[in-house]
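Just wondering, does anyone understand these tokens?
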Amino acid sequence: MTKAYRVYQVDSFTTERFRGNPAGVVPNADGLEDAQMQAIAREMNDSETAFVLSESEGPREQRDYDVHVRFFTPTCEVPICGHATVAAHYVLATERHAPMHSRIVQRTGAGILPVDVDLVGGRYRVTMTQGRPEVGDGLPAEIRSRIAKAIGLDTADLRDDCPMAVSSTGHSKVMVGIRSRAKLDSLKPNLMALADISEDIGCNGYYPFTLDPGEDPMVHGRMFAPAIGIVEDPVTGNANGPLGAYLARYGIIPGIPCDGTFSFRIAQGEAIGRAGTMEVLVDMRGGVPRTVQIAGDATIVFATTMEL
């Protein structure tokens, strides 16, 4: 017996089509097998496609979440994805004509996490709470050198105040602070070398970024994750959320409170014609980043049905 699955293409972290970060969304994924989800993600060929399951997971009153969202790249399943979460909940809110404010609790590979959706100026804006922040110590010199060379950087391109380190809020990335926006935009990384390093360090993504405190947006970045089939992710919550935790952990920007929330905006995707922005919010407790959120807009590019 066939079932019609609704399939959306959504551009996240933008209000304009063909900008920001595209994600696939299947909001009624109950009944799909793992292999079918992977095949759909490969066919969509976005960096991630989100599959929303709800009806097949038992009565709502018997579980501590509203929906289960699974994320697939074209080659594998990943625990969580920022822009695909924004896309999925934008679609759910649009389909359900959500009120001025709603909170949905989602189960993901990174844990059970809340997502807030607000109607702002006639559009839905999604705020995603990410997983527990974890920021590592600086990487060994030999690994730093390999990463810099693979990305296309010289030692002089790197910021002295930004240790090259792995940061995660559910899906880890290597933070690489660099000095020049022009250098950032001109990068042409050795993707095979980056994939090989990922296998050695157990981290699949690399986030070179520039930092301009006092400017808005404060951060410009690019994200490469060839080990999981992503040549470049245009605007990614799984890099910028961890960046917020990393900046707090190392005290890199001035004015971070010991207790309270600090926030900043980022811009990403300019170098590949997919410019988008998001806000990163970091809640500090006792000088330690405790909760990280990302917030952004989205727009639907197209919707169709697929019978399987």
